[in-house]
Automatic annotation (TrEMBL):
It comes from the Eukaryota. This is Small ribosomal subunit protein eS21. GO terms for molecular function: structural constituent of ribosome. Coiled coil: none annotated. InterPro entries: Ribosomal_eS21, Ribosomal_eS21_CS, Ribosomal_eS21_sf. Pfam families: Ribosomal_S21e (PF01249). Belongs to the eukaryotic ribosomal protein eS21 family. PANTHER family: 40S RIBOSOMAL PROTEIN S21. Keywords: Cytoplasm, Endoplasmic reticulum, Ribonucleoprotein, Ribosomal protein. One of its GO terms (biological process) is translation. It is found in: Cytoplasm, Cytosol; Rough endoplasmic reticulum. The keyword Cytoplasm applies. Its main location: cytoplasm.
Length: 81
């Protein structure tokens, strides 16, 4: 399992605050990365309360879980069809 630690640096900029997100190597990262529907390849919006995310475990040849999983995200519009 890989864990990423993000440092939140607050910068005072003309009487308002903005948040700068950087990872350990100093690269700038986004605060929010939207999910995409696995079936239609559309972006799943934050207000799509009908969307689901399913994690399916990967197994080896003997039928045991490997510790990895495959994630599928389905948007609400596809689920309604």
């Amino acid at each position: 399992m890989v864990l990423s630690v993000y440092n939140c640096n607050f910068v005072l900029d003309n009487s308002f605050r903005s948040q700068i997100m950087q990872n350990d190597s100093g690269d700038y990262v986004d605060l929010y990365v939207p999910r995409k529907c696995s079936a239609s390849n559309r972006i799943i919006f934050a207000k799509d309360y009908a969307s689901i995310q399913i994690n399916i475990a990967e197994i080896d040849d003997s039928g045991r879980m490997t510790g990895h999983n495959k994630t599928y995200a389905i948007c609400g519009e596809i689920r309604r069809k």
